[in-house]
Amino acid sequence: MELETLKEAGLTEGEAKVYLALLKLGQSTTGPIIEESKVANSIIYRILEKLIETGIVSYITKEKTKYFKAENPRKILEYLEEKKQNIEQSKDKIESLMPFLLKMTTEEDTSTFVYEGFKGFQTAFEHYYQKLKKDEEYYSWGVYPIQDEKYHLYWEKDHLRRKKSGIRCKILFNQGTDKEILKNRNSFWGCDARYMPSSIKTPAWFITYKNVTGIFLQSKKPIVVEIINKEIADSFKAYFDDLWNKSKPFKS
After folding, report:
1. What is the pLDDT of residues 126-153, one digit of tens each?
2. How far apart are the first and last CA of the chain?
3. CATH classification number, 111-246, choose in 3.60.10.10, 3.20.20.190, 3.40.50.2300, 3.30.870.10
4. CA 42 to CA 46: how far, in whole Å?
5. Beta-carbon count within 10 A of 151 CB
6. What are the φ/ψ torsions at residue 221 (nearest 5 degrees)?
7. 149 pairs with which residues across the strands?
8. What mean pLDDT, rounded, does the chain reach?
């Protein structure tokens, strides 16, 4: 348990083993440390140097021999606080560079990307925040009637974020979707959710905006295919417009 906790704090497994060994041994040369920690002789000095750099291990020299000692465990809290501050500083530096980095970003006429898993699903979906400005909107249709609860929680969270960004959306749900779901989506600012005018049901659904088209499959292993191409996006938008014009506003 102690080993796993130290690893969660940012130490490697070897560093955690050596630190715990030193807490038990007190002042020690490398031999007993290797025996107690079961760390290979070839990497013991590298690990000790790293622990010394972080301030949680120190050493003294007696008759040309180094003796290492674990510092008070509270030093780990100081190490974590310093690490946190460094992360915040790095974050600030990257944020200041962001306008320059974005200007350097080039986008090919056509690009295709594949995202997998729930995290990949979220990443692909949230790309609309990078493309759309206030009062612009995305268009989605063919949304499957049955979804895991984690998706419903995610949608509610995203709609709140979307509202803050001032981005609108139009969504067509497959027929058979619970009315409470559409009622919920329509309760959010800037969202117009309706039923598809057709009874066609597919496990995949679509989203399009600007030059982006996304094909989402919410299976046990979610997968998203994202296509960056203006002509393709315009074609999908034409399909959406035809379906939207045939749909009716939702009435609870």
Report:
1. 999 999 999 999 999 999 877 888 888 9
2. 53
3. 3.30.870.10
4. 8
5. 16
6. -115, 90
7. none
8. 87
CA-CA-CA-CA dihedral for 38, 43, 45, 46, to nearest 10: -130
Residue labelled with tokens 């080993």 = 3
Q: What pLDDT does residue 1 have?
A: 54
The string over 198-229, giving b where at least 16 C-beta atoms fall within 10 Å of a residue's C-beta and e elsewhere, is eeeeeeebbbbbbbbbbbbebeeebbbebbbb
Quote the tokens at residue 236. Answer: 């999908």
pLDDT value at residue 172: 96
3-state secondary structure the chain: CHHHHHHHCCCCHHHHHHHHHHHHHCCECHHHHHHHHCCCCCCHHHHHHHHHHHCCEEEEEECCEEEEEECCCHHHHHHHHHHHHHHHHHHHHHHHHHHHHHHHCCCCCCEEEEEEHHHHHHHHHCCHHHHCCCCCEEEEEEECCCCCHHHHHHHHHHHHHHHHHCCEEEEEECCCCCHHHHHHHHCCCCEEEEECCCCCCCCEEEEEECCEEEEEECCCCCEEEEEECHHHHHHHHHHHHHHHHHCCCCCC
Q: Which CATH architecture has domain 2-75?
A: Orthogonal Bundle (1.10)
Answer for the pair 151, 236: CB distance below 8 angstroms, yes or no.
no
List pLDDT tens digits, range 101-127: 666 555 556 789 999 999 999 999 999
Tokens of 94: 């990257």
| pTM of full prediction above 0.85 | no
Per-domain boundaries in the chain? 2-75, 111-246
